[in-house]
């Protein structure tokens, strides 16, 4: 099969879904594209976890079920999209929820753009892939969750006819404007963009879809006089405003370091946590992602979904500060811990450290060897 990026799929195009069914038999099904620009809208789950955002997917006229995966190709076998699964959480009432899986087409350019950078030689840190060390691309992004609004609805928010017509000329198919759902906490866009803002243009050029924003971010790397900032034109509460908003550079490695202390797994706040739009004022703290049954944190009630911001009155704004403080704690010592929950509520509790059964250890990911390395930080000799 060959990967192709052009031409993009259009409504009414015929495609073949080639993949494996539930019995792992190779199957090919013909279908018709009904919507090549369906914007995903996956709400936050009860526990912060990865969810696809700022992404357009492909919808077909046939429901092949959530167990059928593969690729979408044309008649010549050229891959147009990956038929991939997404997870969301359906909520019933106030306290009941259930995970739900659905499958949509992911345009192949989302993969080929990154793949081309890896093949041609990127500027990022090396990563071992199938025994070969390759430099990974650094990705510049605007850490803002966006969602589309039809221009017919945007008029009711007093968006001017001038901008409506400009956006229609830019994209007569989608006929939409992007709005801000929220900024990731700790991002350079935080406190600049507000919920409900309409993003009209970048450098005075109208934008109508997520790809326009991504392309504008990538273009910043080709210029040296922009300081990694976008010149945005937004519409906020009936006013047109020009803003200069910073972007963030990510290496794509995700979490590369975790610490187990007294039976709880702590790490830096990952993107799904920051997407909630809140970090503690006390230096952001370290995030408790998991806890172990029978551990000191279990017995004394230090559970997940909160940040540890102080140990015995000493701030723990990051993992290094957290390690420096916990290294000084002895076996059997009572420790006062201040936490802040995801809902913003602070709490102070005391627990008894047990270095015999629950020593402090650290896991670090080495991208050059693709290996996680475990090191005991403190335990009983």
UniProtKB/TrEMBL annotation:
Chain segments annotated as transmembrane: none
CDD domains registered for this protein in UniProt: cpPDZ_AthDEGP7-like
Superkingdom of origin: Eukaryota
InterPro entries: PDZ, PDZ-like_dom, PDZ_sf
Domain PDZ: 153-238, 274-343
UniProt xrefs under PANTHER family: PDZ DOMAIN-CONTAINING PROTEIN C1685.05, PRO-APOPTOTIC SERINE PROTEASE NMA111
Name of this protein: PDZ domain-containing protein
Lineage of the species this protein comes from: Eukaryota, Viridiplantae, Streptophyta, Embryophyta, Tracheophyta
């Amino acid at each position: 099969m060959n990967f192709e990026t052009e031409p993009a799929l259009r409504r009414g195009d015929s495609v073949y879904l080639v993949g494996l069914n539930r019995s792992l038999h190779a199957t090919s099904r013909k279908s018709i594209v009904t919507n090549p620009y369906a914007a995903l809208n996956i709400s936050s789950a009860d526990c912060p976890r990865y969810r696809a955002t700022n992404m357009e997917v492909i919808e077909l006229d046939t429901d092949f079920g959530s167990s059928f995966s593969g690729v979408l190709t044309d008649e010549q076998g050229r891959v147009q999209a990956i038929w991939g699964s997404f997870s969301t959480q359906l909520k019933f009432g106030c306290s009941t929820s259930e995970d739900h899986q659905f499958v949509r087409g992911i345009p192949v350019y989302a993969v080929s753009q990154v793949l081309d950078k890896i093949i041609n030689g990127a500027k990022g840190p090396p990563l071992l892939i199938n025994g070969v060390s390759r430099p990974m691309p650094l990705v510049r992004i605007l850490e803002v969750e966006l969602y589309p609004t039809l221009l017919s609805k945007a008029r009711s928010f007093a968006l001017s006819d001038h901008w409506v017509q400009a956006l229609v000329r830019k994209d007569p198919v989608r006929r939409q404007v992007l709005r801000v759902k929220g900024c990731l906490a700790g991002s350079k866009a935080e406190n600049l963009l507000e919920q409900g803002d309409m993003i009209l243009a970048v450098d005075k050029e109208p934008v109508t879809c997520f790809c326009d924003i991504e392309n504008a971010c990538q273009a910043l790397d080709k210029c040296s006089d922009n300081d990694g900032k976008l010149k945005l034109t937004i519409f906020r509460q009936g006013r047109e405003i020009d803003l200069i908003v910073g972007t963030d550079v990510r290496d794509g490695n995700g979490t590369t370091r975790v610490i187990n202390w007294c039976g709880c797994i702590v790490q830096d706040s990952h993107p799904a946590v920051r997407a909630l739009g809140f970090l503690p004022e006390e230096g952001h703290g370290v995030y408790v992602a998991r806890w172990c049954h029978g551990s000191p944190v279990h017995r004394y009630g230090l559970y997940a979904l909160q940040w540890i911001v102080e140990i015995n009155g000493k701030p723990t704004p990051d993992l290094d500060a957290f390690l420096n403080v916990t290294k000084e704690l002895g076996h059997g010592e009572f420790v006062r811990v201040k936490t802040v929950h995801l809902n913003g509520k602070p709490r102070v509790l005391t627990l008894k450290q047990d270095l015999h059964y629950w020593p402090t250890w650290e896991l670090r990911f080495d991208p050059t060897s693709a290996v996680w390395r475990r090191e005991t930080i403190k335990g009983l000799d």
